[in-house]
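Weekly structure sync, notes
Attendees: PL (lead), two postdocs, one rotation student
Agenda item 3: pending single-chain targets
PL asked that the sequence for the first pending target be pasted directly into the notes so everyone works from the same version. It is reproduced below exactly as submitted, 446 residues in total.
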Amino acid sequence: MTTVTRHNLARNSRYITWLISDTAKGLASALFSFAIPLIALFVTNDPAQAGVISAVGMTMRTVTTVFGGVLADRHRRITMMITGSLVGIVLSAAFTALALTGALTFITLLVIEIVLAARTGLFDIAGESALKEIVPDDAMGRAQAANQGRDALLQLSGGPLGGVLLAAGAWLIGAAMAACHVIAATTAWMLQRQAARTDATPHAAQETDASQETDAESSETGLVAAAIAAGRPNAAREVAEGFRWLFNRPDLRSALFVSTIINLGFSSALTTVVYALQQQGQTPLTIGLLSTGAGVAMLVGALFAPMFVSRVRAGTVIIGGLGFATVGVFGLIPSHSPLILALVLGAIVFFVPAINAALMGYFMVATPTEKLGRANSASAVLGMGAMPLAPLVAGVGLSLIGRETTLIVAALICAASVLLAISTPALRALPAESGWTAHAAQFAIR
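Predicted structure, written out during the meeting:
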């Protein structure tokens, strides 16, 4: 009789270093995502123009994410993390300079949104894919739940912090972003050094830590060698392979279609709320505090996420959580007070950590390492495919049909996604965490 020891994430130094790097990068993105729509509204005083900036940025991120997956499968992923953060430092410094010189206009905001979105699309997939090389499959659900807790903290702090910084000056947003990217680049470099030390460790010592059984060099440089051996790399062919593999997996593609629709509905609703509050004359700090309620709810939800993913079928977690959130979107329609809106937003996002932990955890377990970059990018493109429409729906909707009607449209989109999820057998069949490996093996493509 043998005893299986659960992998201890707290003792996995590579995971902790990766988490710090990814968190710093995430805070930079959270600050900019919060600030750019408000800055655009202050500069143009036109929700439609602000919506155009956000829509173009989301479109650029979606397009570049496709090629980011190819890069993540071709090159060393940790090196890509370092490069992406260095690019982020340069772009954040440029935004700071524009703000300090009073050069923020519709055009300059559009340009900086495009280049920052391109940086995210090209480099961030590598960081997400690197997690599979750092955390073993039997701990992936808990790692994703921990990541959701981290995201909740970013949600909790990003809005208020962004509001304080923006109230003092837009340039402070850029300075804070640059500092975050410095931390992200430094810790990614440390992660690379840790991988190098792991490579130099004798095999017997490596067996003491399950997180080190798959080292970065063998997984990353091996992918490049395989690509070279197969012939001249072809980005279009590699992108097509990623999408083809994903669409041939019925256990994964159904969830992605649902994600596309629900993301459009949620994003349209939340953007409508933010735009409407700005047009009502609410301060950036007040708008930022809206995310506090959502952040607290996500943090509490993240505490329960490991229990949900380990004890409840993933299909039930996903469908039930989306249904609960959709009811909350309908609750936004009659709500106008910032306090009430914060409470409703908190209810909407409570099950989001469990939903994401189930979806992302199973996806990481089910996807082979050599395809993870392209599969991640294909998943992101499908998940974000309709999101560029969200700021346009919000901006144009507020201008033409008003706040309440726009929120009704967003809520109906969310409801359609829940009905699709309920009617999809492959999504309903997803098991709890302990059954992920065996369930995924049934759909393995040889």
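Discussion points:
- The chain has 19 helices and no strands.
- Residues 156 and 296 are 6 Å apart (CA to CA).
Action: rotation student to compare against the earlier draft before next sync.
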